[in-house]
Amino acid sequence: MLRAARPVVVLTDLVLPTGSGFGVLRAAKGLDPDLAVIVMTVGGIEDAVAAMKKGALDCLAKPVDPVPLLLLVERTVERSR
């Protein structure tokens, strides 16, 4: 799906019904190392640090406030243009 869609930014939760957000992060970075990936999690600081080390642009704690999330996505899209 990533290859077909060619997104500018990817939003993923670390906990998914099937697979994991780390898998999404790995696939996105494998497709394009510069692809911005924003990770959301209810996990602790360890999950956030691991996601950032694996290349996530940012890691947001759930529940996610939509206003800062939207600003982050907008800035990311603008940078890619």
Task: Provide a descriptive summary of the structure in words.
There is one protein chain. The chain is α/β, with parallel strands linked by helices and 81 residues long. The protein has 4 helices and 3 strands, in the order αβαβαβα. The protein is globular, with a radius of gyration of 12 Å.
Essential attributes:
4 helices, 19% strand, 3 strands, 81 residues
| Unreliable sequence segments | none
Main beta-sheet annotation: 3 strands, parallel
What separation lies between the terminal Cα atoms? Answer: 22 Å
Tally of individual helices: 4
**Average of the residue pLDDT scores:** 92
Short characterization:
The protein has 4 helices and 3 strands; from the N terminus they run H-E-H-E-H-E-H. By secondary structure, the chain is of the alpha/beta class. The radius of gyration is 12 Å and the shape is globular.
Annotate the secondary structure layout.
Layout: H1 2-5, E1 9-13, H2 21-31, E2 36-41, H3 45-53, E3 58-61, H4 66-80
Parallel strand pairs: 1-2, 2-3
